[in-house]
Design a protein that fits this description.
The complex is a heterodimer. By secondary structure, chain A is of the alpha/beta class. Among the domains of chain A are: 8-61, no CATH class; 159-220, no CATH class. Chain A has helices at 8-15, 21-26, 55-61, 109-116, 142-146, 164-168, 170-174, 179-193, 208-220, 238-253, and strands at residues 69-79, 85-94, 98-102, 124-129, 132-133, 149-152, 226-230, 257-262, 273-278, 281-283. Chain B is α+β, with helices and mostly antiparallel strands. Chain B has 2 domains: 2-51 and 159-279, no CATH class; 58-151, Alpha-Beta Plaits, CATH 3.30.70. Helix content of chain B is 73%, strand content 8%. The chains are: A alpha/beta, B alpha+beta.
Chain lengths: 284, 285
């Protein structure tokens, strides 16, 4: 997706000095169905990467991070202790890919997710996610990066006092959407994941499968560039797990790049790229 | 503004997450603000008492019996120019004789075989600075036409020392009360804030900035400050009302005292909120 010359984004980007990273970071991407949307229908619309992350601008502003891949890890390591952690991770995920990383518990899947989301720093190597270099990026650019990610956590992670609809809409509240818009989009998303009837409940009142679906709804509500799901089938029965798989695949078919970490063997479509992880190392 | 609404709702939810702690923080701040206001009111009352005493503690300049009216007028004019002097009154020997005779009940002129009282100037002070008064009075005692100057120096000094001690003690007390309660409120709010650590982690991972989380902590603290401020204003107003009824006397509180009390609550908790958020680690480990 490239910025359209003469659009509001392009004009705003032009006003920023090329070396003024802070100015560029302040620029917001085009909102769905706003100026600059190139998708044929409203349903296909998703936020564009900000202009400075588009391919043409990468050469200007992120000379060291030029990459067609949305995830580009090169010899990345992170160690909690001498033996535990990730070692020499090389991973390239292209835009629109579905990548499944399979491995047993303790293999380093969650560590990899935490690293990709910027929660853990890159100790050695180079990591570029959606154009953001994690190794060099300052703390201030992490929130910007995270707005392009949809995260599904292994553990239950909700705002306990918010309702289901409130939890689904949290990313939109962070993005400054109006209350009405948040509610409408969250409801639409809940209908999509089959949680519309539970919209007024609290997360604690949901079953395990429903919680997983709520996490997916929250992760997808922004139409993220990259969906990272960490053990989305943990503690779920086969039926619930296949429901979650369907939701993930639906998001993938719409063009979202998907990265799934799992310790269970699942039936994934043939286009899915499977990678194994053992002892903190990836093995294709 | 839209984003602030989310922060406000999260701050409010943090307070509701452990309501017992919220009540404790509000009660602590209400109590300490009320106590500070009460101490301030007491100091104002003491100031009134000091003023009343000063009005009754005069210095008396006894003039020589043969002093001329011109000289007396000169002395009066000079004394009026002294700093802190409110009024200088001339009391003639005859007035003094009449006053004291009526007090004693006998004609003192008959007893003493004449009027024993000298012409007198009575100096009323509005404010006292001891070294100043001492040097002025020592100088005035040597003036032509002045026989003696009598003034209750020791009483003034004791009064001032007493009031200074009370003021100092009150100030130290207020500072200690405020510090202790602020530390306790900080601990309480921090416990509340840290109790939602997992939720803050989630918000950060969803793209909220650390500054956003700090705003939530500030909202949480300022909400406590505002509620406690309102309660303490109400409490102090009731105390003031009761004092007026019981002692039939009114403490004249300065203009804007109640809004200032409310503002003090908010400002103090702003500091607490900042301290709460700055002690929680939001950055990468």
């Amino acid at each position: 997706m490239f910025s359209v010359p003469g659009t509001r984004d392009a004009q705003a980007a032009a006003r920023c000095s090329r070396r003024d990273k802070a100015c560029l970071v302040r620029l917001k991407p085009a909102f769905p169905c706003g100026v600059g949307c190139l998708q044929p229908t409203q349903a296909d619309c998703r936020p564009a990467l900000p202009n400075y992350l588009q391919a043409t601008d990468l050469t200007m502003n992120h000379k060291t991070n030029i990459s067609p891949a949305i995830v580009d890890l090169r010899a990345v390591s992170y160690h909690y202790t001498k033996d535990a952690g990730l070692s020499d991770i090389d991973l390239r995920v292209l835009k629109g890919e579905l990548v499944v990383i399979e491995g047993p518990s303790g293999a380093g899947k969650t560590t990899l997710v935490r690293l990709l989301s910027g929660e853990l720093p890159v100790q050695t190597g180079r990591a570029v996610i959606a154009g953001f270099s994690l190794g060099n990026s300052s703390e201030s650019s992490l929130p910007e990066l995270r707005r392009y990610l949809g995260l599904v956590f292994q553990e239950e992670c909700f705002l306990a006092r918010e309702s289901v609809i409130g939890n689904a809409a949290v990313p939109l509240a962070i993005d400054n959407f109006t209350r009405r818009e948040r509610k409408m989009r969250a409801l639409k998303m809940l209908v999509e994941v089959g949680l519309a009837r539970q919209a007024r409940r609290k997360p604690a009142e949901l079953s395990g499968g429903e919680k997983a679906r709520l996490q997916i709804a929250r992760a997808l509500i922004r139409n993220p560039q990259l969906l990272i799901a960490d053990e989305p089938f943990a503690h779920l029965d086969t039926q619930s797990a296949s429901g979650i798989t369907d939701l993930i695949l639906r998001a993938h078919r719409r063009g979202t790049t998907v990265l799934v970490m799992t310790n269970q063997r699942h039936a994934w479509p043939s286009e899915a790229r499977r990678i194994s992880i053992r002892g903190g190392r990836l093995a294709p | 503004m839209k984003r602030l609404r989310f922060h406000v709702s999260q701050g409010w939810q943090t307070l509701r997450s452990r309501p017992g702690l919220s009540v404790l923080a509000i009660a602590l701040l209400t109590f300490s603000l009320g106590l500070c206001a009460a101490v301030f009111g007491t100091l104002l009352t003491l100031q009134d008492v000091r003023q009343n005493l000063l009005e009754n503690l005069n210095a008396t300049v006894e003039l020589q019996n043969d002093v001329t009216d011109k000289r007396r007028a000169q002395i009066t004019t000079v004394i009026k120019r002294w700093p802190g002097v409110a009024e200088v009154t001339y009391i003639s020997p005859d007035s003094l004789l009449r006053y004291h005779s009526s007090e004693v009940g006998d004609d003192l002129q008959d007893i003493f075989g004449g009027n024993p009282f000298p012409p007198t100037l009575q100096i009323q002070f509005e404010d006292i600075s001891h070294p100043n008064i001492d040097s002025l009075i020592a100088k005035a005692a040597r003036w032509e036409g002045v026989a003696d100057i009598i003034y209750p120096r020791e009483l003034w000094e004791r009064l001032d020392i007493f009031i200074a001690r009370l003021r100092g003690g009150a100030l130290i007390g207020v500072v200690i009360i405020l510090l202790v309660s602020l530390v306790l409120i900080w601990l309480v709010l921090r416990a509340q804030f840290s109790g939602r650590r997992e939720e803050w982690r989630l918000l950060l991972l969803l793209g909220m900035t650390p500054a956003g989380l700090r705003t939530i902590a500030l909202v949480q603290a300022v909400t406590v400050g505002t509620i406690a401020g309102v309660f303490s204003v109400f409490g102090v107003w009731v105390l003031h009302y009761v004092y007026t009824i019981v002692f039939l006397d009114q403490i004249s509180l300065p203009t804007g005292f109640y809004p200032l009390l409310l503002l003090a609550g908010i400002v103090l908790t702003l500091f607490v909120g900042y301290a709460v958020s700055s002690k929680v680690k939001f950055t990468r480990n």
